[in-house]
Amino acid sequence: MTGKTLFEKIWKRHIVTKRHGQTLLYIDRHLCHDGSFGAFNRLRQRGLGMRRPDQTFMTPDHYTPTHTASLDDLEDPRAREIAAAVEVNAKEFGVTAFPWGDRRQGIVHVVGPEQGITLPGLTMVCGDSHTSTHGALGCIAFGIGSSEVSHVLATQTLWQKTPKTMRITIDGKLGFGVTAKDVILAIIRKISAFGGTGHAIEYAGSAIRDLSMEGRLTICNMPIEAGSRFGMVAPDETTFSYIEGRPFAPKGEKWEEALTFWRTLPSDDDAAFDVEVLLGGDAIAPMVTWGNSPQDAVQVTERLPDPDSETDAERKAAMAAAYDYMDLKPGMAVTDIRPDRVFIGACTNSRIEDLRSAAAVAKGRKAVIPAMVVPGSGLVRAQAEAEGLDRIFTDAGFDWRLAGCSMCVGMNGDTLKPGERSASTSNRNFRGRQGPASRTHLVSPAMAAAAAVTGSFTDVRKLMEGS
């Protein structure tokens, strides 16, 4: 009998029934942010309660301000109402919440793992496309739409089509100055923005196993940018060490029982994947995106590609349009691109390891362009301040903010001005993502800090040498 993949093992355990090519899945845990207010309103309108309020967890993140501790300072009254609705809905429906003002509040994809809500072997959903982040701990986690949020609230189940499986193996050792963000951008560059469509991706190989949990969370944050809704890493001792002792993690005998189960989850040696992709970790370098898709990425030492070298007419036209929007030209050196602002944060890169990486570059230097640092949660912020990272940033002229999604999506007022270009640690560089007519370049936290202190995209390895 053929072995099973990590994905298949978890998926099979959660099947309630099948019908017409669809699978009804039981959902273990449901994460909600401030954007879920519409789903709760639909429950009220239909007179429905929640199936498992004890397995739903809420925190505001998209609309919350990062420059002030008061929601009253949000200029948009609708944004104030949406952010405040988290606490209102939580109290009415009996849901665990980390509301605005709670030191545990933050980006939902940071809070879940941080609190031990995210565990191996679970099925998890959230009304956000980057829910795959949680798969870094060895669970099936994926984003759903607003009507699906209502369905899960009411039934704790969801109809889904079973995806195919893909394994992306990265062996070798990552080089000096190369981070998980560079790895995922290199992956998307290789397989394209559509390469993972219809597949659940498992990341494997020695380079993945060597990553910290923060690095794995970054990798699993972005499979949606390659067309996949699922990203996973098999649980191992790194995973277990990260989880142990967290507030919602199993304790005592239940911890030992959980470990026994979790150790059965990794893909079997003879498991078959529908697609296999191989990359060499030692060939990956610090990356920078130049266009309007995460697949538009190059190494910082390269020049921007020429659309005329493309044989696919559609891809050629897309590249030309991206150059026009981004106000760049083929053949430019990456180091000739000068961002107007720097954003360090988002569910991709706002954890303590990310902030340490950026602070190591900022230390003893001065920002020459405006730069803001937004921790992923109140607890990350507190830890960074205990380590003195906030002082490193403020001494360097960086703006130290409160936790939230901030400029990643710009729903809280943190936006670029039209025509401005950013060096951003977020996950999307779509047109207008960070404000109308904004131009976004995706980079790692270290690369973002390097851009802040030099005024252009710079090979961060040069700044790190001898440090």
Overall description:
The chain is of the alpha/beta class and 467 residues long. The protein folds into 2 domains: 6-275, Aconitase, domain 3; 296-464, Aconitase, domain 3 (2-Layer Sandwich). It has 16 helices and 19 strands. The strands form 5 sheets. Strands 5-4-3-6-7 form a 5-stranded parallel β-sheet. Strands 17-16-15-18-19 form a 5-stranded parallel β-sheet. A 4-stranded parallel β-sheet has the order 11-10-9-12. Helix 2 crosses helix 5 (146-155), helix 6 (180-191) packs parallel to helix 8 and helix 12 packs parallel to helix 15 (445-454). The chain is globular, with a radius of gyration of 21 Å. The relative contact order is 0.13.
Instruction: Give the biggest sheet.
Output: 5 strands, parallel
Tally of individual helices? 16
The top-level CATH class of the largest domain is: Alpha Beta
C-alpha geometry: globular
How many strands?
19
- Give the terminus-to-terminus CA distance: 53 Å
- Spatial order of strands in the largest sheet: 5-4-3-6-7
Unreliable runs, pLDDT <50, ≥5 residues?
A: none
Helix vs. strand class: alpha/beta
Query: Strand percentage, roughly?
Result: 15-25%
CATH architecture verdict of the largest domain? 2-Layer Sandwich
**CATH topology label of the largest domain:** Aconitase, domain 3
Using only C-alpha atoms, the radius of gyration works out to: 21 Å
Helix share, percent? 25-40%
Average of per-residue pLDDT values: 96
- For the record, the count of structural domains works out to 2
Query: Looking at this structure, what is the CATH superfamily of the largest domain?
Result: Aconitase, domain 3
